[in-house]
Specification:
Helices cover 46% and strands 11% of the residues. Helix 18 (550-558) runs antiparallel to helix 21 (587-600). By secondary structure, the chain is α/β, with parallel strands linked by helices. The longest helix has 28 residues, at 77-104. The strands form 3 sheets. A 6-stranded parallel sheet has the order 6-5-7-8-9-10. It contains 22 helices and 16 strands.
Length: 619
């Protein structure tokens, strides 16, 4: 075996032959007791606050520098610059802290890192992904800057990305029905999809897509030639070549803006960083910012803005609206629109908004980029995150209650083949991106797996049956031994579902008597608003409620909807199973759910009237 300790993002999906040949040390947590850096929820919240201040401090000067090279974006260049700044800083800071932690555990002469082929170009903002390669890329940049030497362990084709890609059927975008109803919905879906491609030429609104709301907007006559919106623009963005000489020139100016403030940020996060390490880290940070600055925001900016400007009916539209204001095409559309006095209206497109503390992913991208935000009832923001003006409107999808059925009165509750609990566990991020709190990130892998095992043990001990639907099959690939432990803990009462679909359907949830979630997310809100029995196991491992939501969530806890203890949760489920209709009709429970939904999942059977009224006001 090579005697050097070789730092690597993680060792998932690496062959046993390579593991025997090299002494590989994972930078990201993988197993309990592996010695990797782990941030606590409180530490992540403080980091979010510090990074938010950092962006506000450097952005004005950074914009002055970059504007000279982004003239076609005019005053709106600041939004594009901020987007790149937030992503680069979040990733670089997080990986720096992890590497410093590992370096402190060894003598410098013992350490090396896995050398890979660096990513040559970030063409679009969406190229920042959660891949192993991009994480090893930044590890290599930082370790090289700190004068460590790399060792080539494997070729590009052998980089340990996920071994399988799963074809994931998406259930989010239309109601999932069976029989004749299902056939009708499929036909309508195809018709609505076609309808959405036809613009109302007199419309005052440019659409940037409505995702899961599109079916319901079309159903209510709000899309198509007689609707409210110009059709989505085709994503015909032009790729350009990276100009390294230009970037070297800009780097000299950018580093003068970033360096001192970045040093202060890192010292606040780790006061033990030596001056030499801090100096080298800072220089590499500025270089990485310029190297990762999307080509589409610099070399490809002018041509893409020009093409988008030609495609937009600037004389007609008064607002850009949709879910995808912060997407590759959305950045260009919004830039041109705002330069022409046209407002940008974001639309809420899922749960967590407003009630999960430090939703920094939305705060640092959506809120700051939009002039207005259509929300499902909430109006308060975390004080340390950017804000925008909000307009409260009912959720189209939730208002149409796609899960509404005879769930409680159905015979399925009493059939012997019906299982007791359908457990949906949350999306897990192998490598965290710009979010801090509110994300099921790898820092908490020990607590996440332990809490699931305790839950399955309690359920099994109570004689209850449980079907487990992980958000993604990739989590099973990452942690197969965890799922083996779950199967041992639950025995015949536990069943791991080999299902890769995204979202929920009426038929799927009817395979069990109650739905269990490990956080109040989009699916839980669908259940609440459709009258489907749902219960939440939320031990606050990787997320907790925002201050403004505490009373409403405490009320959900007091009536047995939200739980932190698996034993108490199991008792509540047994109470429900003894008499499901009575549990669902309990006055205090219904009121607590209704009060929560009024603020965070607002519905109205006549939602479309409110939407039309608001759109007409803006027209």
């Amino acid at each position: 075996m090579n005697e050097k300790k070789i730092l690597i993002a993680d060792t998932a999906f690496i062959s046993e032959e390579i593991k025997k040949k090299y002494h590989l040390i994972n930078v990201f947590p993988m197993r309990e007791g592996d010695g990797a850096f782990r941030a606590s929820l409180d530490e992540l919240l403080e980091r979010s606050k510090m990074q938010s201040s950092f962006y506000e401090d450097v952005l004005p000067q950074l914009t002055l520098v970059m504007n000279k090279y982004m003239a076609s974006a005019g005053s709106e260049a600041q939004h594009l610059i901020r987007t790149a700044l937030v992503k680069t800083t979040s990733i670089f800071v997080d990986r720096s802290l992890r590497l410093i932690h590992r370096i402190k555990q060894s003598h410098p002469e013992e350490l090396s890192f896995v050398e890979i082929k660096l990513i040559p170009t970030i063409q679009w903002q969406s190229d920042f992904d959660e891949s192993w390669r991009i994480n090893q890329d930044v590890i290599q940049r930082i370790m090289t800057a700190l004068n460590f030497k790399g060792i080539k362990v494997f070729e590009l084709k052998d980089y340990p990305e996920f071994p399988r890609d799963y074809a994931q059927k998406n259930l989010l975008f239309r109601p999932q029905k069976t029989g004749i109803k299902g056939l009708i919905v499929k036909v309508l879906w195809q018709f609505f999809y076609y309808l959405d491609s036809i613009s109302n030429k007199r419309s005052r609104f440019q659409s940037l897509g409505f995702g899961a709301d599109r079916f319901y907007l079309a159903k209510r006559g709000m899309l198509g030639p007689f609707g409210f919106f110009h059709a989505n623009l085709k994503n015909d963005l032009v790729t350009e070549i990276k100009d390294q000489k230009l970037r070297d020139q800009i780097f000299e100016e950018v580093s003068l803006v970033l360096n001192e403030t970045f040093k202060n940020l890192m010292l606040k996060l780790d006061s033990q960083i030596t001056p030499d390490v801090l100096e080298k880290l800072t220089l590499q940070y500025s270089r990485t910012f310029m190297d990762w600055f999307p080509v589409g925001f610099l070399e490809g900016l002018e041509i893409n803005l020009l093409n988008i400007k030609k495609a937009l009916d600037l004389d007609q539209i008064k607002a850009v609206i949709g879910h995808n204001t912060v997407s590759d095409i959305g950045y260009y559309v919004s830039t041109i629109a705002r330069l022409n006095g046209i407002i940008i209206i974001g639309v809420q497109h899922g749960g967590h908004y407003g009630y999960v503390e430090d939703l920094s992913n939305a705060g640092q991208s959506e809120y700051v980029f939009n002039d207005l935000m259509l929300t499902w009832g909430w109006t308060e923001f975390d004080s340390h995150l950017p804000k925008c003006q909000v307009i409260v409107l009912p959720s189209p999808k939730l208002s149409e209650k796609p899960l509404k059925s005879d769930y409680i009165r159905s015979n399925h509750l009493y059939l012997p083949e019906t299982r007791d609990i359908l457990f949906f566990s949350n999306l897990f991020h192998r490598f965290p991106h710009i979010s801090t709190c509110g994300q099921s990130r790898v820092d908490f892998i020990d607590e996440i797996t332990c809490s699931q095992e305790k839950l399955v043990q309690e359920v099994g001990a109570a004689g209850l049956t449980l079907n487990h639907k992980p958000f993604s099959m990739r989590f099973i690939d990452l942690y197969p031994e965890h799922f083996k432990r779950l199967e041992l803990a639950g025995g015949e009462n536990y069943q791991l579902l080999n299902s890769s679909h995204k979202g929920i359907s009426e038929d799927f949830i009817k395979t069990c008597r109650i739905v269990l979630w490990d956080q109040i997310g989009s699916g839980a809100l669908e259940c609440f608003t459709s009258g489907v029995p749902a219960i939440i196991y939320w031990p606050r491992i990787y997320s907790r409620e925002a201050q403004s939501a505490k009373k409403l969530i405490m009320a959900l806890e007091s009536v047995g909807v939200v739980h932190t203890n698996p034993r108490e949760l199991t008792k509540e489920i047994k109470t429900y199973l003894a008499d499901p209709p009575s549990w669902m009709e309990n006055t205090e429970r219904k009121q607590a759910i209704e009060n929560f939904c009024k603020i965070f999942a607002l519905t109205d059977p006549h939602w479309y009237k409110q939407w039309k009224m608001q759109l007409k006001k803006w027209s």
